[in-house]
Amino acid sequence: MANRLQVIYIEDDALVRRASVQSLQLAGFDVAGFESAEAAEKAIVADTAGVIVSDIRLPGASGLDVLAQCRERVPDVPVILVTGHGDISMAVQAMRDGAYDFIEKPFAAERLIETVRRALERRELVLENHALRRELAGQNVVAPRIIGRSPAIEQVRKLIANVAPTDASVLINGDTGAGKELIARSLHELSPRRDKPFIAVNCGALPEPMFESEMFGYEPGAFTGAAKRRVGKLEYASGGTLFLDEIESMPLALQVKLLRVLQDGVLERLGSNQPIRVNCRVVAAAKGDMSELVAAGTFRRDLLYRLNVVTIALPPLAERREDIVPLFEHFMLDAAVRYGRPAPVLTDRQRASLMQRDWPGNVRELRNAADRFVLGVADMPPETGAGDDADNDQTLKERIEQFERAVIAEALNQTGGAVAATADRLHVGKATLYEKMKRYGLSAKGDTER
To answer: Around 85, how many Cα atoms within 13 Å sit in the side-chain half-sphere?
Structure first.
């Protein structure tokens, strides 16, 4: 808030105004005093960074008029009202109408300073959240939903850009929590079908007896309890995108029917022989190797070929550690906006600790950790290795090397791959840094002597 007016003080009594302005200035605030609401009007603008302190009783427009104007023009700006003894009930009503606080005359300078300080903290939080919303919007324009700087994520973004405008079926392969649905939604939102439905079905969550009726719909009387017509997911997604998560869980009998719909573009509801044309793009997601399921006879080879025109592989976070910090910071911004909290700034140690952790729950676990951190209910850095069986098998030397690699990788990212700047940041010689980079398989980008 440097070089921006912090306090607009409106008081018609020149002695009180001068004393109050001086007290606030001595406390370090940037203050402007005005004798009337009309005189202060030009200083109250939409991006006012500070707070307004106004006497209730003024010549011309009153402090209550100032409050009403602020509620209309700058609703987030805190208004503190100064009142005489006889105006307390009026001030209490003003607080119900949106005033931040009131101060009763005569008041000590400390009371004024403390009230202004608290109001400014609230105003700073509001302005920060506005900035966070703009930053999130900017991120979504550049790379909607897909956050990261690793080569794997760059490849994912390229595939999405190339494939989204087409109707090609896509199979997304990745562990639980890796963000497969986010990729599916990005494919939909960047496609010509973006204005049509995006229907997500978790094949692993549907009981097998309900699978066919959920996917194909049914007519009244098709089975016991079918009292009225129901449109199935395939029909509802027509014109848009159908996302089939955990496709490996789909029963074999339904795989045959789904294949027929994908080949012919026609389905029949349960209890009906009437063909219904459907035209939906199918994006499927799976964890594990689908070819193994085909070999085991639990998934049809011809359906896999139909779904697997393009494969997008989404590696776990443990294999793309350079994405962990950008993702965590993005999730912190999002959580700060949702919860109305300031976004913390990570230290270098916290960044390194985040990168050291394997995050077996992947993006989902990382998002939850960011939420807890913003809410102040979790310490940072997170307990690395706590409860992770893989970490329990590591020797001390292996853990130290893993931590050192994470620190160097993050420092390289922060300096844009400049080896000289990275060496200065880590307080090591360039020769030592080169040796460690070679040992850990890290590479610099661009001019390494910058």
So the answer is: 1
Cis peptide bond upstream of 151, omega within 30: no
- Cβ(393)–Cβ(407) under 8 Å? no
7-139 and 319-440: same fold?
Answer: no
Both tokens assigned to 427: 């307080």
Give the DSSP letter of residue 169: -
Q: Which of 113, 108, 123, 106 is nearest to 25 (CA)?
A: 113
Question: What is the chain's mean pLDDT, rounded?
Answer: 83
pLDDT digits (tens, 9 = 90+) for 21-67: 999 999 888 899 999 989 888 888 766 778 999 998 888 888 888 88
Q: How far apart are CA 126 and CA 181, in angstroms?
A: 32
Distances (CA, A) of 369 to 148, 346, 349, 375, 381: 17, 13, 16, 10, 10
Residue 295, SS3?
helix
Cα 298-200-158 angle, rounded to 5 deg = 90
Residues near 143 by beta carbon (within 8 Å), at least 6 away in sequence? 157
CA angle 128, 129, 130 (to 5 degrees): 90
E strands of 278-327, at which residues? 281-286, 310-314
The CATH code of the domain at 319-440 is: 1.10.8.60
Domain spanning 151-315 has what CATH number? 3.40.50.300
What does 56-76 look like in DSSP terms, one character per residue? SS-SSS-HHHHHHHHHHH-TT
Residue the block writes with tokens 């609401």: 37
Structural domain spans, the chain? 7-139, 151-315, 319-440
Give the chain's largest Cα–Cα span: 90
Q: Which CATH class is domain 7-139?
A: alpha beta
> How many CB atoms are located within 10 Å of the residue 227 CB?
8
Contact 307, 263 (CB under 8 A): no
Percentage with pLDDT > 70 across the chain: 88
pTM reported for the whole predicted model: 0.56
**pLDDT per residue as tens digits for the range 110-150:** 989 989 988 888 787 777 666 666 655 554 443 446 888 88
Q: How many CA atoms lie within 13 A of 83 on its CB side?
A: 20
Question: Do 242 and 281 form a contact (C-beta atoms < 8 A)?
Answer: yes
Helix runs in 74-150, H state only: 88-96, 109-142
Q: Can you tell me the distance from the alpha carbon of 165 to that of 189, in angstroms, rounded to the nearest whole number? A: 10
